[in-house]
Amino acid sequence: MGGHAENGDRVRDRPIVIRNVYVMMAYAFGSIHDTGKDRLSAESFDTLHDLMAEILIHGVGSQVKRGLHRDYRRRSEELTTVRGRIDVTRTVSNRSMVRGRLVCEFDEYELDTLHNRILKCVMILLIRGGDVSKARKDALRRLLPYLDAVTQISPTSIRWDQLSFTRSTASYRMLMGTCELVIRGLLPTEESGSNSLLSWVTDEAMHSLYERFLRQYYRTHHPELSPAAASVKWDLEDATASGVGQLPAMRTDITLRGGQHTLIIDAKYYSNTLRTGQYGKESIDSANLYQILAYTKNADVRRDGSASGMLLYARTTADLQPDLDVVIQGNRIGARTLDLNLSWEHLRGQLEEVTSWVE
Fold first, then answer.
1. DSSP state, 39?
2. Which of 127, 175, 167 is nearest to 25 (CA)?
3. Where in the chain is the domain with CATH 3.40.1350?
4. Global pTM?
5. Contact 266, 290 (CB under 8 A)
6. Could you say which of 3.40.630, 3.30.530, 3.40.50, 3.40.1350 is the CATH number of the domain covering 222-237+248-358?
7. Do 130 and 53 meet the contact criterion of CB atoms below 8 Å apart?
8. Do strands 331-338 and 324-328 pair parallel, antiparallel, or not at all (unpaired)?
9. Residues 324, 334: contact at Cβ < 8 Å?
């Protein structure tokens, strides 16, 4: 995994076209072909919160029309008539039969699923504390009654690792991705009773989105390059040597393979793409460069220069940006930037230029 932005090193001064954030999300969460993409990407949004609210308004509205996700949940209740399986042990111990009742266990097909709980949680979060237009808050309020039967949960209680997708929940991917970005980046402040939201998504959340977006973009448009977050094995002379198991894993952000050539891309989302060293000289972060060089040299098992490495930074507002293209010990190593403030057409042009490294 590529390095994340450092704590406190935020990117408030780096403009990103809000429309591009939506396109990035659409790629990252596999909804680039959704019918509402063109309408949303053409609409104007004053704040990121407004964009998130509109995605939920559009997505939840569509789900209501096609049917919100339901699932079977096991319930146990005292009933006057038999339903499902009688729990004899509990019926006896509770003396239910004395009252003319039976304890029954049964499955109920209901809306109160984790996916819908998360939707309701984030919709309320945006209504109460988001920098969202009145019209969009009203639209979210009009959708909430459809989730009346859904339990309201705290955003901090959500276990994202428990969230999974099946054929019946595939249409929730973009919605859940939006909710996760809101909750990870726009959590309520810790002030007592406060429902205000932070004014921007955390760098960690944006780094994760940026990396996932890049990978999904190439998977969508260049499947012939087999884009993947592939692992690189250490090119060891003796795989049985002492301590081999203690070597750290090398997992790339994106690996592209074209013919006999491999390009390893390390996605970087920092507010400072260059580091200021001695005498004020600005240079590429040494740790980033050493990492991509290590990945590339170990991937080049034939030692013929068939593996290259690229640091792909999100462009900042700094005057000097990474622009490196060198050959180190036979392997091409570079550092480029993507300007997320460009129109989508120009941004896509920059993404396409990267593929020339595997031609």
1. H
2. 175
3. 222-237+248-358
4. 0.71
5. no
6. 3.40.1350
7. yes
8. antiparallel
9. yes
Amino acid letter, residue 34: D
Q: Environment class of residue 148 by beta-carbon count within 10 Å: exposed (0-12), middle (13-18) or buried (19+)?
A: exposed
Q: Say which DSSP state 197 is in.
A: B
Each residue of 171-206: pLDDT tens digit?
A: 888 899 889 878 876 544 333 333 334 444 566 777
- Look at the block and give the residue holding tokens 């060293």: 277
Q: Determine the Cα–Cα distance for residues 84 and 91; give it in Å rounded to an integer.
A: 14
Q: What is the 3-state secondary structure (H, E, C) of 227-248?
A: CECCEECCCCCCCCCCCHHHCC
Ramachandran class of 20: left when φ > 0, alpha when ψ lies in -120 to 50, beta otherwise: alpha
Considering only CA atoms, which of 205, 231, 162, 167 is closest in space to residue 21? 205
pLDDT digits (tens, 9 = 90+) for 213-230: 999 999 999 999 999 999
Residue of 353, 245, 358 whose CA lies nearest to 305: 358
Under DSSP, is residue 345 helix (H, G, I), strand (E, B) or coil? helix
Which residue in 171, 176, 168, 170 sits closest to 71, CA to CA? 168
Instruction: For residues 84 and 103, give the distance between their C-alpha atoms in angstroms, rounded to a whole number.
Output: 10
pLDDT, tens only, 38-52? 555 556 677 778 888
Locate tokens 């040597």: which residue? 241
> How many Å apart are CA 111 and CA 146, to the nearest integer?
10
